[in-house]
């Protein structure tokens, strides 16, 4: 068990006996269901929804098992268990996803109950990672550490985990349902591309509350979430969410899978009518049963109490000496390290995007190393980001150099967080049964082309996001440069979009022109970057700002001029 | 792909599935036996493939042996049969980005 001595580690939610009993019962239930499937008592048609409820998909080469990492936060012990499972039951690696989860690609159905049993030993599971339910709630990977944080999103994400688990009304929704929470000034959780996006704020009295954005989503029909209510007080948090889900359950399109997400409902009903329906339901629900008791909130908050930070000066001489002596470290520091709320500490992003590498993949050796480093430098806790990286959130500035040296030696020292090499890519046709084209080879080629760290910093903030099909698991719609793989008569082509933005100024990218081949795509990306560098007003003007100022024409002209 | 190859595109089909207990990609071989290597897969004239598929599918499902059973196009390249689509080429070999994984790592891919 990952029972963590209070006060010695960073905040991880500790399962109570009810949680443990529930997870253990689900494992045993699934074990029997697998037995019944293998013996023929259950047909595939009967079994498929059951295995999906336990995170088990059938992909191109084998079964894929998606493990929940609630709001992307886990302990070193849990990561070691993920590594151990990867070695024992998979092929020595795992893939971190845009829902802050982890996937194994080579799982056997007959092994799955044993895997779930081992996961339960460290309070982990694969529940709500698939199916038409409320999926793993995501939040800011810098939660509890960011200097610009106003409200701790983990507390409310955990409340939602408890509220939605086994909730009878949320188990058979019209379609899957994704929620993200951000409690900081900067949106690092892409809240407005979620079915429900929550911005946690504080009012004049310092009380927490939430802005509810509803109907965001990517996929075949991308929409930016719309503001349904500016302020929902903490006590009404679950009541308002339940009201939204009830309206969705009642009116969501169960007749057409392509129109079943809440974004279509909001679009078809219109914001005014949808909001009216939610408000009426909320008025009916509001009352003692649905009022979020402050004592419950405080109880959960206790789990996420700050770790025992030392009182340190914010300035670190050791850090400055290392910065001055090692340019590669200085670059990593400038790119991958963010300000912490506690003086003398910093937030370190571990890039899983080495030049030419597979975005989001980590070997079991790397996972073990990160677990060790989390123990040594970050109170035994780490986070998975929605851009497929890892984060050690509480590192002493004095120890950043030691940390980086060990990361770098293991191929985890890439300095590209938020830069052009920090590419989101879905598994694509190399693994996924739904994909039309490969994503990973293109990500590898682009990151190799822009491998030079100096060039990457010169280019600055520029997110590339690649999806291998219109389901948009690679978030291509909100990439500053987005790439969608398509199949044209058996040949892979790539459609390029520009101007997407996953932050609070959320925007869906525009298609730049006809799709190009894989080889042409890498050159096209470089051409787009060249046009940007030639047109930006100064080094501080980001790609999307230059694009907004000069329009698409110069980019189109460069790429398609020869056509 | 040469013009000669293109002229043969779609002329043959193979039958594939995922093995139920472990998800392994399998192919229907000679004599109705399921094999792991595409090189051992039986090839059927396009017009006959669906007739072979139906009883093979019924039997594999009845015996809880395989799921997701379907036919796919096979073409000749340099005299060697290969799956016509990238999707099926990847299934018969393994991920193009991890040559150390899948059938390609075991010598079980297309010949």
UniProtKB/TrEMBL annotation, chain A:
<dbReference type="Pfam" id="PF01077">
    <property type="entry name" value="NIR_SIR"/>
</dbReference>
<keyword id="KW-0349">Heme</keyword>
<feature type="domain" description="Nitrite/Sulfite reductase ferredoxin-like">
    <location>
        <begin position="359"/>
        <end position="409"/>
    </location>
</feature>
<keyword id="KW-0560">Oxidoreductase</keyword>
<protein>
    <submittedName>
        <fullName>Nitrite/sulfite reductase</fullName>
    </submittedName>
</protein>
<dbReference type="InterPro" id="IPR051329">
    <property type="entry name" value="NIR_SIR_4Fe-4S"/>
</dbReference>
<keyword id="KW-0411">Iron-sulfur</keyword>
<dbReference type="Pfam" id="PF03460">
    <property type="entry name" value="NIR_SIR_ferr"/>
</dbReference>
<dbReference type="InterPro" id="IPR045854">
    <property type="entry name" value="NO2/SO3_Rdtase_4Fe4S_sf"/>
</dbReference>
<feature type="domain" description="Nitrite/sulphite reductase 4Fe-4S">
    <location>
        <begin position="130"/>
        <end position="283"/>
    </location>
</feature>
<dbReference type="GO" id="GO:0051539">
    <property type="term" value="F:4 iron, 4 sulfur cluster binding"/>
</dbReference>
<dbReference type="GO" id="GO:0016491">
    <property type="term" value="F:oxidoreductase activity"/>
</dbReference>
<feature type="domain" description="Nitrite/Sulfite reductase ferredoxin-like">
    <location>
        <begin position="63"/>
        <end position="122"/>
    </location>
</feature>
<keyword id="KW-0408">Iron</keyword>
<keyword id="KW-0479">Metal-binding</keyword>
<dbReference type="InterPro" id="IPR036136">
    <property type="entry name" value="Nit/Sulf_reduc_fer-like_dom_sf"/>
</dbReference>
<feature type="domain" description="Nitrite/sulphite reductase 4Fe-4S">
    <location>
        <begin position="423"/>
        <end position="559"/>
    </location>
</feature>
<dbReference type="GO" id="GO:0046872">
    <property type="term" value="F:metal ion binding"/>
</dbReference>
<keyword id="KW-0004">4Fe-4S</keyword>
<dbReference type="InterPro" id="IPR006067">
    <property type="entry name" value="NO2/SO3_Rdtase_4Fe4S_dom"/>
</dbReference>
<dbReference type="GO" id="GO:0020037">
    <property type="term" value="F:heme binding"/>
</dbReference>
<dbReference type="InterPro" id="IPR005117">
    <property type="entry name" value="NiRdtase/SiRdtase_haem-b_fer"/>
</dbReference>
């Amino acid at each position: 068990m990952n029972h963590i001595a209070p006060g010695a580690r960073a905040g991880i939610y500790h399962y109570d006996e009810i949680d443990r009993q529930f997870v253990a019962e689900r494992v045993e239930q699934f074990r029997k269901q697998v037995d019944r499937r293998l013996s023929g008592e259950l047909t595939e048609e009967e079994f498929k929804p059951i295995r999906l409820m336990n995170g088990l998909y059938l992909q191109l080469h084998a079964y894929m098992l998606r493990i929940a990492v609630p709001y992307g936060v886990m302990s070193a012990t849990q990561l070691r268990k993920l590594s151990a499972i990867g070695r024992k039951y998979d092929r020595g690696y795992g893939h971190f996803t845009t829902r802050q989860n982890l996937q194994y690609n080579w799982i056997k159905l007959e092994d799955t109950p044993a895997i779930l049993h081992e996961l339960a030993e460290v309070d982990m599971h694969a529940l709500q990672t698939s199916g038409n339910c409320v999926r793993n709630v995501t939040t800011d990977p810098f939660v509890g550490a960011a200097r610009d944080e106003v409200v701790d999103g983990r507390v409310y994400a955990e409340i939602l985990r408890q509220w939605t688990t086994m909730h009878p009304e949320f188990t058979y929704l019209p379609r899957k349902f994704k929620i993200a929470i951000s409690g900081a000034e900067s949106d690092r959780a892409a809240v407005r591309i979620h079915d429900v996006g929550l911005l946690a704020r504080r009012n004049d009295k310092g009380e927490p509350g939430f802005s509810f954005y509803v109907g965001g989503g990517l996929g075949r029909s991308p929409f930016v979430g719309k503001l349904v209510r500016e302020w929902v007080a903490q006590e009404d948090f679950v009541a308002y969410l339940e009201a939204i889900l009830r309206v969705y359950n009642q009116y969501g399109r169960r007749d057409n899978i392509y129109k079943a997400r809440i974004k279509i409902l909001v679009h078809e009903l219109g914001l005014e009518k949808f909001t009216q329906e939610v408000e009426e339901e909320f008025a009916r629900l509001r009352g003692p049963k649905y009022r979020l008791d402050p004592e419950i909130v405080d109880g959960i908050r206790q789990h996420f109490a700050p770790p025992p930070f030392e009182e340190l000066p914010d300035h670190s001489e050791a850090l400055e000496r290392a910065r001055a002596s090692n340019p590669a470290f200085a670059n990593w520091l400038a790119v991958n390290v963010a300000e912490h709320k506690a003086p003398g500490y910093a937030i370190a992003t571990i890039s899983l995007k080495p030049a030419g590498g597979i975005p989001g993949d980590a070997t079991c050796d790397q996972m073990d190393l990160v677990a060790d480093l989390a123990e040594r430098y970050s109170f035994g806790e780490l986070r998975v980001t929605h851009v497929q990286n890892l984060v050690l959130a509480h590192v002493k500035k004095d120890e950043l150099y030691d940390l980086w040296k060990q990361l770098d030696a293991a191929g985890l020292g890439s300095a590209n967080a938020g830069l052009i090499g920090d590419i989101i890519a879905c598994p694509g046709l190399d693994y996924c049964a739904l994909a039309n084209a490969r994503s990973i080879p293109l990500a590898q080629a682009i990151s190799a082309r822009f491998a030079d760290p100096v060039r990457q910093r010169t280019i600055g903030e520029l997110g590339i996001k690649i999806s291998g099909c219109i389901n948009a698991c690679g978030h291509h719609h909100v990439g500053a440069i987005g790439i969608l793989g398509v199949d044209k008569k058996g040949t892979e082509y790539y459609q390029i979009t520009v101007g997407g933005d996953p932050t609070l100024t959320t925007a869906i990218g525009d298609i730049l022109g006809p799709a190009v081949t894989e080889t042409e795509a890498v050159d096209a990306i470089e051409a787009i970057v060249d046009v940007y560098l030639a047109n930006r007003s100064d080094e501080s003007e980001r790609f999307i700002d230059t694009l907004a100022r000069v329009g698409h024409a110069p980019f189109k002209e460069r790429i398609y001029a020869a056509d | 792909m040469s013009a000669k190859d293109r002229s043969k595109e779609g002329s043959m089909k193979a039958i594939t599935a995922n093995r139920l207990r472990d998800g392994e990609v399998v192919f229907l071989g000679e004599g109705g036996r399921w094999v792991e290597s595409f090189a051992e897969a039986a090839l059927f004239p396009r017009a006959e493939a669906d007739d072979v598929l139906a009883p093979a599918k019924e039997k594999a499902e009845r015996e809880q042996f395989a799921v997701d059973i379907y036919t796919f196009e096979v073409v000749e390249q340099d005299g060697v049969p290969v799956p016509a689509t990238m999707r099926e080429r990847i299934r018969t070999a393994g991920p193009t980005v991890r040559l150390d994984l899948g059938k390609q790592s075991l010598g079980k891919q297309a010949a």
